[in-house]
Design goal:
Elements: H1 4-14, H2 24-30, H3 35-38, H4 58-70, H5 80-91, H6 95-107, H7 121-131, H8 133-136, H9 156-168, H10 178-187, H11 192-206
Helix pairs in contact: 1-4, 2-6, 4-5, 4-6, 7-11, 9-10, 9-11
Length: 209
């Protein structure tokens, strides 16, 4: 587990205006503008290309909201869903607001996304372990010490789309996207079938979280 000191240092590096500790109650109020796409319980909506956010890593949520706000995500013309998200991130006035929303979402119980991708769970476990597990954990629950997201809550259609975005350079191409560049390098070693199998494996893990 990431220590409190490590978390504070990481958050200090995110942006000059954020809060060290988010207020989940204040974040709940701010989340009202997100419900239409991400759902009342932050369960996500595959039809609207919106990932599940409940139970996601707080530090990861903060970093992604800042990336949208600063143009590291959602600025590519081929990222339709990201372009929809960016103006909503801009509504969050400052780092305190971002930290509050992240604290609220992280406090919610993780949802089990509806499976939409067919794949071989056993084969997916093998490829996930070899190609993803070192950073995202053996069950895809993420690793705060490595700033990696929890993959079992986002939904398989979102996972597949984002990996392909990394492969195509739609995501992770910004010069300041340090972690995105790492993910881009890993994404290119995954075939389409392996990706579907990995998604099926993560769906299975979501039943245990």
């Amino acid at each position: 587990m990431i220590s409190r000191l490590q978390k504070i240092v990481f958050l200090l590096l995110l942006s000059p205006g954020f809060a060290l500790a988010g207020d989940a109650e204040a974040g709940k109020t701010l989340y009202a503008t997100c419900v239409a796409c991400h759902g009342a319980n932050a369960e996500g909506n595959a039809a609207l290309l919106a990932p599940g956010l409940a139970g996601q890593s707080e530090s990861y949520l903060i970093r992604q909201l800042w990336d949208f706000k600063n143009g590291k995500r959602g600025a590519d013309s081929n990222d339709t869903a990201g372009a929809q998200m960016r103006p909503l991130a801009l509504v969050l006035a400052d780092g305190e607001a971002i930290a509050n929303v992240a604290a609220y979402l992280a406090s919610l119980p993780a949802n089990m996304p509806v499976a939409t991708v067919d794949g071989d769970v056993e084969n997916g476990e093998k490829h996930f372990t070899n190609k993803c597990g070192a950073c995202h954990g053996g069950k895809g629950w993420g690793n705060e010490a490595l700033y990696t997201p929890r993959l079992t809550v986002i939904g398989d259609s979102y996972l597949v789309r984002q990996v392909k975005n990394f492969q195509r350079g739609v995501r992770g191409a910004h010069e300041d996207a340090k972690f995105g560049k790492q993910m881009k390098m890993m994404s290119i070693v995954v075939t389409d079938q392996e990706l579907n199998d990995i998604a099926a494996f993560l769906n299975a893990q979501s039943r245990e979280q």
